[in-house]
Amino acid sequence: MNDVMHKFRIGPEDLALVRAAGSVILPEIDDHIEEFYHWLAVHDEYQTFFSHNEGRLARVKSMQVLHWKTFFEAQIDAEWMASRRHVGAVHAHINLPNDIYFAGVCRSSESIIRRLRHMDDRLEQIEATIDSVGKLMFFDAFVVIEEIARSQREKIEAGSKALLEMSTPVTPIWEGILLLPLVGVIDSERTQDIMTKTLNKIAETRARVFVLDISGVGAMDTAVANQLIKITRATQLMGCETIISGVSPTIARTLVELGVNVGDVRTTATLRDSFELALRSVGAGRELFGSERPVAG
């Protein structure tokens, strides 16, 4: 916390000046808050959050009184930081637009500074005081916005995780055979998810063959290709053979140009060919295909 405050050039002398300002501002803080909501009332956000809920407006006003009280006490500790993060969490929860939040910060700053200038006869270092109050207000807003950003990142990560869950369905399709059809963009994070789910599913089902269908993948870079090869090797360590199906001419050419070593990985051009190989591997091929010659991998 001290490192961040140092970046905002907030030192003990600034906090002392903020406390001095509080001695003259806090007695008028109700007037400041009423002025703020008079300004907010002309904006759409007021109608959205307060126009039909007077009880909410009263609660928020009382919370702002406490907010300004702790602001001008200027005791920047863990409790102070937690209270600002709580504000950010609430704003994130109700999806308060950032533009109205920053506009409100600017409006509050203008109001506080104007009031301080009218009290210059009661403050010894008016310009230094205004500068210190402004720095702490910026720091206050920074903590709130950081919490909003953190909350939004969590939502995005949760959404991405849910999408991965839906987009990586390792499914048993026959006794001893698993299938995973990949569609869309494949990156390193997704291949790690594929590795984890595939190995867990193999352990759960004791599968002997894993068919990885990449016909729905449009492009592949070296890192992803190497990760897929690692997946096949990991499955082999668990006694499960991997067959990669749907290798298009474009991907085949890319793998050659990138110099990816596929080693003894079995590949096929179509999913049907992979199924035939898989069924023969688990002993069902003769029953279904008779004495047909297996498709070469």
TrEMBL record:
InterPro entries xref list: Bact_StressResp_Reg, Globin-sensor_dom, STAS_dom
Keywords annotated in UniProt: Phosphoprotein
Start and end residues of each STAS domain: 167-278
Pfam families registered for this protein in UniProt: Protoglobin (PF11563), STAS (PF01740)
Annotated PANTHER family: RSBT ANTAGONIST PROTEIN RSBS-RELATED, RSBT CO-ANTAGONIST PROTEIN RSBRC
Protein name as annotated: STAS domain-containing protein
Taxonomic source organism: Paragemmobacter amnigenus
Phylogenetic placement of the source organism: Bacteria, Pseudomonadati, Pseudomonadota, Alphaproteobacteria, Rhodobacterales
